[in-house]
Amino acid sequence: MRRLRTRVAGVLLAVLALTVTTACSSKDGTAGSEPAAKAEAAADRVEPLAETPTPQLPVTVRSSDGRKVTVRDAERIVPLSGSLSEIVFTLGLGDRVVARDITATFAQAEKLPVVTRNHDVSAESVLSLKPDLVLAETSTGPDEAMGQIRDAGVPVLVVDPAKGLDDVGPRIEAVARALGVPAAGKELTKRSEERIAAVRKDIPKKTDKPRVAFLYLRGTASVYLIGGKDSGATSLLEAAGAVDGGAESGLEKDFTTITTEALAEAAPDAILVMSKGLESVGGIDGLVKIPGVAQTPAGMERRVVSIEDGVLLNYGPRTDEVLKSLVDQLYGDTK
Length: 335
Prior knowledge:
By secondary structure, the protein is α/β, with parallel strands linked by helices. It has helices spanning 4-7, 33-43, 82-93, 123-128, 143-151, 168-178, 182-201, 234-239, 245-248, 260-266, 275-280, 283-287, 297-301, 319-331; strands spanning 59-62, 68-71, 77-79, 116-117, 120-121, 133-137, 156-159, 211-218, 223-227, 243-244, 255-257, 270-274, 304-307.
C-alpha cells in the first residue's frame, strides 16, 4: 500500500484514459460511448506548456529526504513515478526523459524503457541509461536500489508525496527548480490551479453531499480494500462536493479490508474505483457480488465512478481532468 497513494498509477497505470464507467447515468452499469471516447482522448496525452523552457544549471536544491542535491545537467532524466514523469513532460522537457516507471503509460512516455519491476526500482536498469538526474518519491524503493544509484554519483531528488489538491503546485515547482526551469514551474502551477478552479465552479451546489467510498480492488490477487482517511482520495472527493464515506465513518488507516460492516458504516451513495480494479472483479456485475456492496445505496443503484489508475491520485497537471471526470460521473445529468 505504501506506493499506492504516490503512484496510482499503475497503481497503477495503463494507457491513460479516464474511463467513464458509471451507473450514475445508466442502471445497467454501461456508459455512453461518446463521453468515454472524449475522456480517453483527453487522458491519453499530457499537454506541455506552449513555450519549451531552457534549463539554467547548475542548481542546488533541497530534497525532501533532507539532502542537498546539486544538478549540473538535465539531458538524461529518469522520473521514478508516473506522476513525476507527467510533470517533466508537461513542463516541456519530455524529450530529455530516458526511462519510465511502470506507472507512466501516457502516450508520450509509453515507448520508453521501464526501469521498475512490480513497482520496485532496478538500480542496474537505471544506471545503464547513464542519467544526469533521478526524480523519486519518498516511497520509492527499495532503499538498497536507491542507495546504489546515489553511490554511483547520480543526483537523486526526492519529492514529497501527493496527498491532496494542495500538493499540486508544490510538487510541480519542486521538480521545476531541480530542472533549472523555475519560471516554467510557476506557469504550470498557475495553469493547473486555474483549470482546477474552473472545474470546481461547475460543481452542483447541493445541500445533501453524496457519500462516496473509494475501493481499491485487485480481483486477480483477491485484494479488496476500502479507503480511509489517508487513502489520498479524500481531497479529491471533497473538491467534487462529496464526502469520503470511508474517512467519515472513522477509518483512520489508508486502506482497510472490505467487510460488510465497514461498507454499512461508510454507507456510500456512489463507489469510486480505479478502472483496472473494476475490470479485475468483472465490472459492475462482479463488484456488487463483493460481500456488503450490494446492500449499500451505491450497490443497490449500481452507481460506480471509474477513473483510470494512472491519473486518479496523481495530483498533478491533469488533476483538473480527473476532477471533471469525477464530477461528470457523480452528478450526471443533474448538474
